[in-house]
């Protein structure tokens, strides 16, 4: 008698890694890359790439404070995808942060 195998469950989530990283930074602008990586279940290198993406797109900036970075979320920007046109980043973050 053959054992029936279940199809592999597809893994997906509603939020992108970029959204998760941005939420962590919005919660704590002084957060370390290591801590973002741990909370988002990503590598530090992946978080660094995402931060560069967000800065290049104008959603994030940072200043160096000693040996640490302090981030600033530019929440007045529109969301990138045309299907998401309308709300600003601040509105999305307010929902995700529970404000």
Automatic annotation (TrEMBL):
<dbReference type="Pfam" id="PF12802">
    <property type="entry name" value="MarR_2"/>
</dbReference>
<dbReference type="GO" id="GO:0003700">
    <property type="term" value="F:DNA-binding transcription factor activity"/>
</dbReference>
<dbReference type="InterPro" id="IPR036390">
    <property type="entry name" value="WH_DNA-bd_sf"/>
</dbReference>
<feature type="domain" description="HTH marR-type">
    <location>
        <begin position="17"/>
        <end position="63"/>
    </location>
</feature>
<dbReference type="InterPro" id="IPR036388">
    <property type="entry name" value="WH-like_DNA-bd_sf"/>
</dbReference>
<protein>
    <submittedName>
        <fullName>Helix-turn-helix domain-containing protein</fullName>
    </submittedName>
</protein>
<dbReference type="InterPro" id="IPR000835">
    <property type="entry name" value="HTH_MarR-typ"/>
</dbReference>
């Amino acid at each position: 008698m053959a054992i029936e195998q279940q199809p592999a469950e597809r893994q997906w989530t509603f939020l992108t890694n970029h959204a998760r990283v941005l939420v962590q930074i919005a919660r704590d602008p002084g957060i370390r890359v290591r801590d973002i990586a741990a909370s988002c279940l990503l590598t530090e290198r992946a978080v660094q790439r995402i931060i560069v993406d967000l800065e290049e797109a104008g959603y994030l900036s940072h200043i160096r404070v000693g040996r640490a970075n302090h981030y600033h979320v530019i929440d007045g920007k529109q969301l990138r995808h045309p299907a998401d046109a309308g709300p600003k980043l601040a509105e999305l973050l307010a929902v995700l942060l529970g404000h």
